[in-house]
Amino acid sequence: MGAIAPELEGRHDVTATDPATTGRDASAKNHWFAVSAVAFGTFLLVTAEQLPIGLLSPVGSALSVSEGAAGLMVTVPSIVAAVAAPVVPVLVGRMDRRLLLVALMGLMTLANLASALAPNYALLISARVLVGVAIGGFWAIAGGLAVRLVSAPLVPRATAIIFGGVGAANVFGVPIGTVIGGLASWRIAFGALSALALVVLIALLAVLPPLTAAQPVGLRRLADQFRNQGVRVGILATFLIVTGHFAAYTFISPVLQELSGIDARLIGPLLFGFGIAGVAGNFIAGAAVAKRLHATVLTIAAALGVTVLLYPMAGLTAAGGAVLLIGWGLVYGGVSTSLQTWMIRSAPQAVEESSALWVAVFNLSIGLGALAGGTIVDALPLQGILWLAGVLVLVAGLAVWSARRNDNLR
User: Fold this and answer.
1) Of 20, 108, 392, 395, which is most buried with the most CB atoms under 10 A?
2) Cα 178 versus chain centre, distance
3) Where is this region: Disordered (predicted)?
4) Does this chain's domain 1-14+30-216 share its CATH topology with 218-410?
């Protein structure tokens, strides 16, 4: 899922080396091993959140529930994560963020172990609630952590690495987990996820420096962020872009097959290509936001909106559909890094608060997007979800354009 760019030094009163605002000691070294460990954590989070997508049938069969009911394994943690993102930082007060991240990874370890051992559906969903708590709390802290781990000029690169875990999970984590579930069992897949979480926990303990909170996150400080124009625009843009994306992408398989005429056997390889393009887009955006943040976010919104809106016209052949899908992945891959950068630059003195709100909206939008897409697919032709997604993303672009005079975001 960017930050304080090099040009910040000449234009702002607050720098990334101010302990009062970031908690980073000016004499501290760059903690690249810590950045890598946090990236490993984001990889695990997204894998844990989306793994059940490939396991709905075997879980439903084993626990005697419908695939629709099994689908709650994805919906529930997303909604819980949206609530946990702002709530966890408030509840823990000044707790050392290093210990908090380790504790949340411990919760992830236990929750996935409980999922693997769950004797019935109710206990499995209960375990997925705990997964949601871990996702929301961890991501809320990790999203803005780059400003505390590396010096200001290196923050965009570090943030791109942290959010590289998101794309890597889509490319490798979920498919590999699904294969494990198919070859062994879904319980083994969840068990492997628990073991991976334990590895991340140990890595975080080994390489994260102390991350004492400069001041606790409070409800008033969270509410105060809505007075900040940059934060308001960032939250609105995130809501529109992520809702639009997941409204359409949730149904990308029928779109590829029914609109583009692509054989079902090619869907997997094409989605793999989408993921690879997303990883590339993440790092391209990470480099671009360091130079021109506002222009980069505006370009992403415009390009994504146009790409999705072109699909019903230019994606009606296998070649056209495949090209547009890869382009879609490349552009969407830059969304997390660029919007997280936007939030940090909008509120450099309240990074945790703005990040927590952003993570909450991001996760909520995933669920709302899938719900909106499902409603439209049932009522309108398949092209309807593409029109919806494209319009929402272009409206997000208008919101981004409205902040063009904000010096913090240039």
Assistant:
1) 108
2) 20
3) 1-25
4) yes
Residue at token pair 């979800």:
385
Q: How far apart are CA 46 and CA 367, in angstroms?
A: 14
In Å, the largest CA–CA distance within the chain is 62
- Written out in words, the top-level CATH class of the domain with range 1-14+30-216 is mainly alpha
Q: Copy the structure tokens of residue 400.
A: 């981004």
> Is residue 345 within 8 Å of 293, Cβ to Cβ?
yes
DSSP 251: T
Burial 279-309 (b: 16+ CB within 10 A, else e): bbbbbbbbebbbeebbebbbbbbbbbbebbb
The average pLDDT across 68-97 equals 85
CATH code at 218-410: 1.20.1250.20
What letter does residue 384 receive in the DSSP assignment?
H
More confident residue, 154 or 206: 206
Q: What is the rounded average pLDDT for all residues in the chain?
A: 84
Q: How many helices and strands, by DSSP H and E, does the chain display?
A: 20, 0
pTM reported for the whole predicted model? 0.78
- The three state secondary structure string of 306-322 is HHHHHHHHHCCCHHHHH
Output the pLDDT for position 214. Answer: 66
3-state secondary structure of 228: coil
Q: Which two tokens stand for residue 180?
A: 């494990």
Helices 186-207/174-183 angle, 10° precision: 140
6 contacts 157 by C-beta, under 8 angstroms: no
Phi–psi pair at 382, nearest 5 degrees: -60, -30
- 351 or 12, higher pLDDT: 351
For the chain, what are the domain ranges? 1-14+30-216, 218-410
Least confident of 190-194, 246-250, 297-301: 246-250
AA identity, residue 364: L
Which contacts qualify for 103-106: CB closer than 8 Å, 24 or more apart?
Answer: 104/133, 104/134, 104/137, 104/138, 105/41, 105/44, 105/134, 105/138, 105/197, 105/200, 105/201, 105/204, 106/201
Q: Rounded to an integer, what distance in angstroms lies between the CA atom of residue 405 and that of residue 264? A: 47
Token pair of 69, please?
């009911």
Condensed to tens digits (0 to 9), the pLDDT of residues 339-365 reads 988 988 888 887 778 888 888 888 888
Over residues 126-133, mean pLDDT: 95
